Every structure is written in C-alpha cells, then in structure tokens.
Amino acid sequence: MAGSLCDVLPAAAALLGAPAAADRLGVTRGAGDVDRVAVVLVDGMGWHLLPELAGSAPLLASVLAGATGTLTELACTFPSTTPTSLVSLATGARPGEHGILGFTLNIPGTDRVLNHIHWRGDPPHTVWQPLPTWFERLQRAGIRARAVLPAAFLGSGLTGAAYRGAEIRPTHPTDDYARLFADELGAAPGLVYGYTPGLDSAAHLFGIGSPEWHAAAAAVDALLTRLVDTLPRTAALLVTADHGGLNVPPAARIDLDTAPPLGEGVRVVAGEARVRYLHTEPGAAADVQATWSGALDGRATVHTREQAVATGMFGPVDERFMARIGDVVVTCTGDAAVLATAHEPPETAGLIAFHGAATAAEMAIPLIVFP
C-alpha cells in the first residue's frame, strides 16, 4: 500500500500550498493550478468492497476501470473504527499519538466507558485528544478550512477532537447535501471536508451485499457524481474512507456475557465486537489472557497491553494514553466477533456487518483523486 489515512489531509494541504505539509501520496504531481480542495470521507467504503459496490455505482465502476480519476490503495489506522479513523485523518497522527484508541474506551481511574459517538462534555476534547488538527494548521496558515457536517454532530466531543479549527457548515436530513457542499467549495478557496455515513449504516443494519447496502452505494455514487460534475476548474476532489468491513454470521459470534468463564476477572469491558479491551481486576490479567486464549484459539489473537503495544499496531503510544488500552487486548481474526450483551446497547448484537480488527477487509481503504 502506498500510504495511510494519516497522509490524506497533509496531501490536501500541500495542494493548497500550506507550509510544512508533506505530500506522501503524490497528489500534487501534475495537479496544476489548485486553490481549493474537497475531501470527502465515505464511511465504510473499504477497498475490498469496491468491486461489489461498482454494480450499483457507475462512477465507482469507471474509477475501477481506470477511466475516471486516480485510484490508490491506502490503509486506515488500528482499530479500524470510525472515531479512531476520523481523528487519524484530522490530525495526521496514529491512534497511539492522538489517544482515540477505539470506539469505546475506559476512562483511566474510573469504571466509566466513554462511547466516542455519544461523547458530550466530559472529558474535554482538548484534554482527551490534545493534538492539533489539520483544520487548525490550515487556518493558522491563512487558508480557510471548512467542514460540511450534520447539525447533530455540533457540540459533540468527537466533533471537537476531529474537526476543531474548521468552520462548520451544519446540514439537516432534508437538505440537498451535494448542492450545499458544492456551493461551499465554489464560494471561496481553501479546504472543504465532507462526510457521508449511509453506506456504513446500511452495512451494519442490513449486511454488506444486501439490497439496502446497494441502494446506499447508489446514493453515494450519485453524490460523488454531482460533486465531480460541479467541481470548479481550480479544484481537486479527494475521496477516501475510514474502514472496510465484513458480515459476521451467527455461528461466529461469542457473547462474553453468556459465557461465564470469559467474564471472570474482568472489571471493565471496552472496545467493540472485533477488538475488545478487557480491563482486569488486580492480579487477574494473566488468568484472563489464558482463559481467552484457550476459548478463542484460532478466532482471535489475545495480547497483554504491553504485547499489543509492542506489535506497533497503534503506532507509538504516548504514555498518557497507555491505560486507555485494556490489560488484555482481544483482536478477532477471520469473521469472529465478541459481543458484550450486558455491557452494550441491545441493538449492537443485531448488527450484521462489523469492523475494527486488522484484516485486509477492514483496514484497506481507497483514495480516489479527481483533478
């Protein structure tokens, strides 16, 4: 793979002439006169899903055929989950550096589990995620940075952690998102960022390959087609994703809350179904690791925190964030998933597609550049 999700906004900033912005993806080569860049993140549009998506998406089919745009394979960061990826994109840093190390995390020193999607107020986003974003860097360089986001995102901790520094343009479900985004891009030079969640939502609720998923693919394709068709002459459009995903069949699901040995010695359960962080009772970590290793043999890797960090999967881990990782880290392989029905909303167990682990189906993402 040529690069990572962390390289996308620095490359966009380089297109705009921002100082100290490194283009590791080569998007500036032959770009010509560019004074505005659109970056659109399609939630759940994994690299390995593109051939199946293409059946409902003429623009993406044209990209795959090499007739439109430039397609490159990138990798997202680990865990391959939306909060982690959004902050990795925004900061250009890996999770161990920015601290958003999973979908849910235990707040060290407490038994509280922070769900990053529902995060409001405490802890403050500037403390929980202290790194500057590229939106802030661009604004300091005198380059406007805007984000066209659902109004429901405003005021959330995740929005602050990922998008601080951006001028937020709120949208509502009844709005014509493509028109609002195109108008924002046409209004002034600089960076305009957009996000669309429908494909990932359809995968979770109905499954990858379902009619509903293909309908969501068609909607994404229609959005991107309109953006390409209205792209100003001095603009470039970069389209990427936060992760891929896979369907998990019922037989591959393990519920730690209905398998008593798996709960023994576990104090707090965090992470998500494909990557579990187990915070253990004092002195219980070795026994928990042994129990889980035996129970999930061939279906997951089971590391201590120190072993997981040593693999480099999180990138360099700031000491301030070390305790956010479980004492035991369970990373599913194949198509397994570890549910926690007594710890999470009941609808989680009803999801069909999941992501979060380190398989190629989850980690590989596209970058499509439309000049």
Automatic annotation (TrEMBL):
Protein's name in the database: Alkaline phosphatase family protein
GO molecular function, one term: hydrolase activity
Gene3D superfamilies the record matches: Alkaline Phosphatase, subunit A
SUPFAM superfamilies: Alkaline phosphatase-like
Transmembrane segments: none
Phylogenetic lineage: Bacteria, Bacillati, Actinomycetota, Actinomycetes, Mycobacteriales
Species name: Mycobacterium parmense
